[in-house]
Amino acid sequence: MAEVLVYVDHVDGAVRKPTLELLTLARRLGEPVAVALGNGAADTAATLAEHGAVKVLTHDASEYAEYLVVPKVDALQAAYEAVSPAAVLVPSSADGKEIAARLALRIGSGIITDAVDLEAGDEGPVATQSVFAASFTTKSRVIKGTPVITVKPNSATVEAAPAAGAVEALSVTFSDKATGTKITGRTPRESTGRPELTEAAIVVSGGRGVNGAENFSIIEALADQLGAAVGASRAAVDAGWYPHTNQVGQTGKSVSPQLYIANGISGAIQHRAGMQTSKTIVAVNKDAEAPIFELVDFGVVGDLFDVVPQLTEEIKTRKG
Amino acid sequence: MSLRIVVTVKYVPDATGDRHFADDLTVDRDDVDGLLSELDEYAVEQALQIAENADDAEVTVLTIGPEDAKDALRKALSMGADKAIHVEDDDLHGTDAIGTSLVLAKAIEKAGYDLVVSGMASTDGTMGVVPALVAERLGVPQVTLLSEVSVEDGTVKGRRDGDAASEQLQAQLPAVVSVTDQSGEARYPSFKGIMAAKKKPVESWDLSDLDIEAEEVGLDGAFTKVEAATERPARTAGTIVKDEGEGGKQLAEFLASQKFI
Ligand SMILES: Cc1cc2nc3c(=O)[nH]c(=O)nc-3n(C[C@H](O)[C@H](O)[C@H](O)COP(=O)(O)OP(=O)(O)OC[C@H]3O[C@@H](n4cnc5c(N)ncnc54)[C@H](O)[C@@H]3O)c2cc1C
Ligand SMILES: Nc1ncnc2c1ncn2[C@@H]1O[C@H](COP(=O)(O)O)[C@@H](O)[C@H]1O
What we know:
Chain A is of the alpha/beta class.
């Protein structure tokens, strides 16, 4: 059976969920061979094996943390040459997309980014993408070389599928371009204790209507009652009320949760781009004409300062 | 010696228009008004600021696109760029990211450069990979997705805000930079800028000027193929209630009916 290379996104050995989703998708195309790089690479093996990796190629070197992107491209290329896979799958993170693109160019292949689904086809993998602010769905294929495809978080269900997961050391020689861009400092993001925005089943977002950083506590209180992640519109982020990492939309995160609750958000096309594939959408907005209401399953025309606390309180009561 | 900055800008269909596909499944660029990609305005802005802080600098804006893409160049010129290059050729229709990076890299080399500044992503393709591809082709450092950028003494520095961490980056010129929409508001063209732009030089190059064969680009040269595009069905109209004191409770009732609580 053909092998499929899966690039592992991990933090010091802790595998991030989108990589496990990739393993689910990779199994539709062949036998997943994982590539884990950097500090803690070998510690990823047990989790990867549980989710279907037949082999885990690992390599650690200080270059991965000290220089941007290119050392990882060199390593992924080495893995590609060692395995001759039928496809290469990479999580759609900022680094992931750039690594995938540079690899594709080097190996003479095409690249598809931000797939939301993958199926095996007669002529190779078929990728589903959501385009034009999620108003169209496309099916595409790479028609030259070995398909290199990046996949968005939440595109598949994580499934256990125990496999050998044999760890093998990957041999990597860095190119002379590897040290071109130096990472001179790194400030890790502080964890909020809430679910990751792109991975959460429920997202509660606030926009300009929240009217101040201090009022975001109303949004957070609702989120915490629901075990949800907190999102924000760009207007709220630009005003400095909430961090950019929480921005939902074209230039923020795209989310596709079971439930999206938009509070004081008008529903501009660039915001929709990041949330309109959510399963259920509800909104609270005092303007009955706000475009967000075109998307909702349930909407309340009203002041969020009245409606949201009442909702939070009611959920608390119902939970008993 | 002067600092030569090339800014890559894309002419895209207006995101607030009714964007769709043409019969050959390429982006329809005829029926929806086009404009300079808003995300590339940030690239023009940062390039202008870098130029303003340098002793002597020249900002060239570069686009690959149809005839109308000149509008995008005019806008960038009216913001303050010095000159423009328009790569236009019928054989470019349908070019994908790999092909676009080839044409951009050849044009950038022909123009001469110390620094390339790009946007974080195009608003139509939204791939966000062209800057990395151009860097790979040019064989120079990529310093991408910066929300803060500065150039001093032949070194470019910037901050890249990622999911897990915020990183400080540094590289020697020549280099390829891309900037995000967090990098700072783009300026509006002034009346004076708009008048001055009319007199600024716009060069037109075609594929033969760049020694690129027609088969290497366009739909024929593409590495990827869109096989189907379907419009997402409109969401069915939901229930909308007006809050008369019970709005939060009604919403809770809905969420309970959907088993969310
Ligand atoms: C290139 C580009 C990229 C962009 N990327 C993004 C992106 O990634 N994400 C994003 O969100 N935007 C993005 N935008 C911006 C987008 O166009 C909108 O400007 C933005 O989404 C508006 O945010 P908002 O809905 O919070 O604010 P507004 O549009 O101002 O809407 C605020 C809403 O709150 C309601 N409201 C006010 N007070 C109350 C109250 N007390 N109770 C209830 N409702 C109230 C109002 O009726 C209004 O509908 C982008 C724009 C561009 C050009
Ligand atoms: N046709 C084009 N002409 C000029 N620059 C482009 C073109 N396509 C992409 N770019 C540049 O590459 C960036 C990222 O584009 P993309 O990878 O398509 O999302 C854009 O912000 C532009 O700076």
